[in-house]
Design a protein that fits this description.
Blueprint lengths: L6 E4 L8 E2 L7 E4 L6 E3 L4 E5 L2 E4 L4 E6 L2 H7 L1 E3 L4 E3 L8 E6 L5 E3 L4 E9 L28
């Protein structure tokens, strides 16, 4: 298992440090940091504060994913599916939660709202060309590799 130090700053005294639920969890839970519970109306998105900022090392990225329990049991998941926290961002981590259910859902003031995975990435140098190399698949798109 690869490890790295990740510095974080509390922007609010009530903020909680990201926390891994088990020894081998890939994602650290992010917690809401609010004065009072927040109701997310059915079919709407609300930005939820975490009260923390992070200092992600160059070459790594923070990826913010849904918590499976919150998504499956309550219908709340990040509106942008996966949030991206770049290594040069120093602002507060906010999670845009979308309510996929048909009922209003309340988020408690310090509830676990998402999980953050720290991952390496490759920076691509894009080069425009006239032709791309051929492959067996070619231009086959959605569903083109399934059995017939």
């Amino acid at each position: 298992m690869m490890t790295t130090k990740l510095r974080f700053k509390k922007l609010d005294k009530k903020a909680q440090m990201p926390h891994y639920g088990t020894e081998f969890a890939a994602g650290a839970d992010l917690y809401a940091c609010m004065e009072e519970p927040l109701t997310i109306k059915a079919g709407t998105t609300e930005f939820v504060h975490t009260g923390i900022a992070v200092e992600i090392p160059v070459g790594l990225v923070g990826l913010v994913y849904a918590r499976s329990g919150l998504a499956c049991k309550k219908g709340l998941a990040p509106a942008n599916k996966v949030g991206v926290i770049d290594s040069d961002y120093r602002g507060e981590i906010m999670v845009a939660l979308y309510n996929h259910s048909d009922v209003d859902i309340e988020i408690d003031t310090s509830e676990r709202i998402a999980q953050m995975v720290i991952a390496p990435y490759v920076f691509a140098e894009y080069e425009e060309v006239q032709e791309l190399e051929d492959t067996v698949r070619g231009e086959g798109g959605f569903g083109s590799t399934g059995s017939k």
